[in-house]
Amino acid sequence: MRLVIIGAGFAGMYAALSAARLREIQGVSPDELEIALVAPEPTLVVRPRLYEQNPETLTAPLLDVLKAIDVTYVQGSVETVETQSRMVRIATAKGTKKTLSYDRVVVATGSRLFRPNIPGLAEHGFSVDSLDDAITLDKHLHGLAKRPAANGRDTVVVAGGGFTGIEAATEMPARLRAILGPDAKTRVIIVERNSAIAPDMGAGPRPIIESALSKLGVETRLGAGVASLDKSGVTLSNGEHIETETVIWAAGIRAAPLTAQIPAERDNFGRLLVDPCLRVPGVEGVFATGDAARAACDGEGNYALMSCQHATRMGAFAGNNAAAELLGVPTRPYHQKAYVTCLDLGEAGALFTRGWDRKVEMVGDVAKKTKREINTIWIYPPKAERAAALASADPERVTNL
To answer: For residue 173, what are the contacts with CB-CB under 8 A and spacing of at least 6?
Structure first.
């Protein structure tokens, strides 16, 4: 039997760990149940940190962890999922093609930044969505120091006032000072279509965010969107033109395109609708998880967000359940009632909330300490020690906040 996991992000990593854990518990050998993880590189990109400086350091190796738990790593990108024949077709980095049959497959392909067809966005926009994007932005920012202090060189516009946009914007003043010098007249501006910053956070945490932006000198343009970009800067939907050489697009994500190959229902974000055990209804042998799946967290109408926090736990349930079906043991319905946010606010500290109503629990330096712990310890892979790695993937305990 073979279980194939597509993707090495947070959901894919935990799917592999959890499936291997159940295989071990059931006393089944890797020869009887092969678990194969397919990804371009055996590396976890620590995506929640890509707004930080030195993005090239924000990865974690997975090969030793996978070897420790007897998970086969298959290098390449899945181009096609053939659900009727239960086959995935893989393109390797060398340009060759190969196929891999499966008895169960877990789609853990993550998400991508949504880039609308705005004039000039593709040519002049930056992002912190992927490792390559973040490295490109970092190189661009360092290159600004070699340019004359004119034509908006010292101005950064962030399009999108949600989590990613706020974290990118609040990190930017310190990054710009480090590159351009303390005397540079830097400006950071967040552009948000909604009438309030952080539209998803609600009224409780918002004053704290607004105070942090004010403290850092970050400006906002609310109720306006980006109409176009060109070499001179960005033009907003209200007609305002801002001179800048740096526009960071942080306005929404969608499930990776591979989900469209699964003959099943998807939501407006391209996520596959799944049942409580993260199966894709009507498509035998297919599970979806992380940003590729729309899953109910509880019985109160809350659904998993496209976030690391939900992806890790969903991954653990998906891997466990896919293996459980093959091993003939009961599956476990996914549930995740605990929900927290920890929003980095740069030199103004951080903001920690709990619950779907986002009750503020910590702010400032105290919350910043928690954010650092999350970013540098909690979200990294377990050590490449078999017992510890397998123990880390109990679905009931993963991301149990």
So the answer is: 186, 188, 216, 217, 218, 346, 347
Q: Which helix (H) or strand (E) holds 171?
A: helix 163-180
Q: Quickly list DSSP for 330-357.
A: ----------EEEEE-GGG-EEEEETTT
Structure tokens given for 14: 């935990």
> 273-301 as b/e, with b when 16 or more CB fall inside 10 Å?
bbeebbbbeebebbbbbbbbbbbbbeeee
The pLDDT tens digits of the residues spanning 27-79 come to 999 999 999 999 999 999 999 999 999 999 999 999 999 999 999 999 999 99
**What pLDDT sits at residue 278?**
98
**Cα atoms in the 13 Å half-sphere on the side-chain side of 398:** 34
pLDDT in tens, 115-156: 999 999 999 999 999 999 999 999 999 999 999 988 899 999
Tell me the DSSP string of 107-156.
Answer: E---EEE-----TTHHHHEE-SSSHHHHHHHHHHHHHGGGS-S-TTTTEE
Tokens linked to 230: 């060109």
Question: Residue 394: how many CA atoms within 13 Å on its side-chain side?
Answer: 7
